[in-house]
Design brief:
The protein has an eight-stranded parallel beta sheet with strand order 7-6-5-4-3-2-1-8. It has a single domain (5-246), classed as Aldolase class I (TIM Barrel, Alpha-Beta Barrel). It has 312 residues and is α/β, with parallel strands linked by helices. Helices cover 45% and strands 12% of the residues. The chain is globular. Helix 4 links the parallel strand 3 and strand 4 (120-124). The longest helix is centred in the C-terminal third of the chain and has 18 residues, at 248-265. 45% of the residues are buried.
Length: 312
């Protein structure tokens, strides 16, 4: 028996939980538009919400990494969460990002947020203090037990400084039915494959990397929480839709056409590239809060050329 198989069938099925929270296909990690005075641009955010819904995404993720949450005050986060919920008006499922590197503080935030209308919490692995795998397990088990919403794990070691292993993810998946899936953004397809192979029935495995979504779905994954769908919602949603339908003969050429524009969006970091592309398309002002700064002139020229070249 391998290290993952020992967890199989060791906990209650979460299929009913997952089916009631249909986070499959394309979720869009919404950016936070700012005005030139660095205040939140709510009209632009509202227009963006409408645009991605019309473009075919399957659910919305508010207050993720792409939203520049480290630079937002708690009051701003509360208002953004409420605004997205109101603008969505029940059209799509909603997920909200609530995470941190202090377990007690995460629980306090979950209690303080008005999460009415949100269907799940996306919670990033604790960052900077670099907990052990045992610490990650206890953190998430504690958060899930305290939350009145199902929890989606979020593993992004390039940002947090610690990788949550497949074994720890699987251990959590079997430990509690309050944890409904993982946004796996390790960039390690082999790690995702082990989770997909040994996950309990109904546990969602979602790509956190736009350019790895196709192979992950081909292995049985449930979709992607996407950055690029802020900019190219129709093209990207159509490609992922083909993947989810098993039509990889259609999806593969679409993925290849998007490969270069998607790579370019991350050249100078996220959300630097996606905000610049949205500014090029006239959707938002190209404004970020320090320590992030606007993309370079060279990136602007490259993105403008790629948007024109591929008709995006």
């Amino acid at each position: 028996m391998n290290s993952h198989e020992k967890y199989i069938n060791s906990s209650p099925s979460i299929e009913s939980v997952c089916m009631s929270h249909p986070f499959r296909g394309v979720g869009v990690a919404l950016v936070t538009p700012f005005k030139t005075d660095k205040t939140v641009d709510y009209p632009a955010l509202g227009a963006l919400v409408d645009r991605v819904i019309t473009g075919g995404v399957d659910y919305l993720v508010a207050l993720g990494t792409t939203a520049e949450t480290p630079t937002l005050t708690f009051e701003e986060k509360q208002r953004i969460a409420a605004f997205v919920r109101e603008r969505n008006a029940g059209r799509l499922p909603l997920m909200i990002g609530i995470g941190g590197n202090c377990t007690d503080e995460v629980i306090r935030h979950i209690d303080r947020y008005d999460t009415a209308g949100y269907d799940a919490i996306l919670s990033v692995t604790p960052y900077y203090n670099r907990p052990s795998q045992a610490g990650l397990f206890e953190h998430y088990r504690t958060v899930a037990a305290a939350s009145d919403k199902p929890v989606m794990l979020y593993n992004v070691p390039s940002r947090t400084g610690v990788n949550m292993t497949a074994e720890t993810t699987l251990r959590l998946a079997h430990a509690t039915d309050r944890i409904i899936g993982v946004k796996e953004a390790s960039g390690n397809l082999a790690q995702a494959a082990y989770i997909l192979r040994d996950r309990p029935n109904g546990f969602l495995v979602i790509s956190g990397d736009d350019n790895l979504a196709l192979p992950m779905i081909a292995l049985g994954g449930d979709g992607v929480i996407s950055v690029v769908s802020n900019v190219f919602p129709q093209a990207f949603s159509a490609m992922i839709g083909a993947c989810m339908a098993g039509d990889f003969a259609k999806a593969a050429p679409a993925q290849l056409a998007l490969q270069e524009p998607v790579d370019a969006l991350f050249t100078e970091g996220n959300p630097v590239g996606v905000k610049l592309a949205l500014a090029i398309k006239g959707m938002i002002a190209n404004e970020l809060r320090l320590p992030l700064v606007a993309g370079s002139d060279g990136l602007r020229e490259r993105l403008a050329a790629l948007i024109a070249k591929y008709g995006l």
